Amino acid sequence: MTSKEFRNDPLFLRNSFVSQGKLGIPIIKKQNVDLNNIDLISINDTRLRENKANKKRGVHFFVDDYRFENTYRRPNTLINRLKQYRFVLSPDFSLYSEMQPWRQIESVAHSRWVGAYWQKHGLIVVPTVSWSAGSSFEFCFDGIEKGSVVAVGMPGSKKDMIRFMRGYNTMIEKIEPSSIIVFGLPFAQMQGNLVTVDYIESKRRDE
User: Of 109, 197, 192, 183, which is closest to residue 152 (Cα–Cα)?
Assistant: First the structure.
């Protein structure tokens, strides 16, 4: 590849999707998602061979980042595997308050870009939403259309319910999600059309 070809490579520019906000974060488009009798399975437990049970499952990325970092670097690698599932959550790149703002922005942008890319290739994608301190609210809800189905993860949220609920309520206000897939036990204060998925059940292997 010549230097000119590299300079114009879409995977270098990452500018092929409609974006939102002053940071130009790619938009994951709102899609119809069948949430009846859903199940979630970790990306770690997915397999290439098809299974009838996969048709009711969504794939989640509530695992350590190193297990799915290639979803941004090589977004094509998982597409054929993921197509057998009902839907897929966008990758949950970590968003910690200890991170510098540019790293937090990068995590959000990478998640949205991968989700938009997978949508372009025929997958049904549910945006995963996460946040850290209040300063992250300036960008962490960008790239998601109003009225979308979204997903949030509860593992780790028990450490600071007040901060979690501040972000959750801001998400409700800004995105107005039609449904919220909740991975784990929700807080009683969480409003909205919640679709709760058991954390322990999702750990079983894909057989």
Answer: 183
pLDDT digits (tens, 9 = 90+) for 147-188: 999 999 998 887 889 999 999 999 999 999 999 999 999 999
Distance set, CA 173 to CA 38, 113, 166, 191, 192 (Å): 26, 23, 11, 11, 11
Residues present in the chain in total: 207
Please give the structure tokens belonging to residue 178: 């039609």
Contacts of 201 (CB under 8 A, 6+ apart): 39
- Which residues 6+ apart lie within 8 Å of 4 measured at CB? none
Distance CA 44, CA 79 (A): 14
Task: Tell me the C-alpha distance between 153 and 40, whole Å.
Answer: 12
